[in-house]
Design a protein that fits this description.
This protein has 92 residues and is mainly β. Strand 1 and strand 2 form a beta hairpin. It is globular, with a radius of gyration of 13 Å. The two termini are 16 Å apart. The relative contact order is 0.28.
């Protein structure tokens, strides 16, 4: 089964993509161990490589607080998906 996500690649504009809703496919997409980050109030998350910065993947997107200050940077390819259930799901 595929899910619709917003793909985030370093140096590129975000775009809509479909990926397989399988752990192995998600690991290939992010280039390693998957980690879900929850910076939004909505029930969506950013799925990224857990070791992205440690292994030197290119910096991708900055996460900012309500004052616009950077508190984290996602490294490597990541995607945004629905996190309202037990499993990652499609965005509408």
């Amino acid at each position: 089964m595929k899910i619709k996500v917003v793909m985030l690649e370093s140096g590129k504009e975000a775009y809509v993509a479909e990926i397989d809703n399988l752990l192995g496919s998600m690991q290939r997409t992010v280039g390693g161990l998957v980690e879900a980050v929850y910076p939004f109030e909505a029930q969506v998350c950013i799925v990224c490589n857990e070791e992205g910065k440690i292994i030197g993947l290119p910096l991708n997107r900055a996460l900012r607080d309500e004052n616009g200050h950077i508190y984290e940077i996602i490294a490597g390819t990541a995607f945004i998906c629905n996190c309202s259930g037990e499993d990652f799901g499609s965005l509408s």
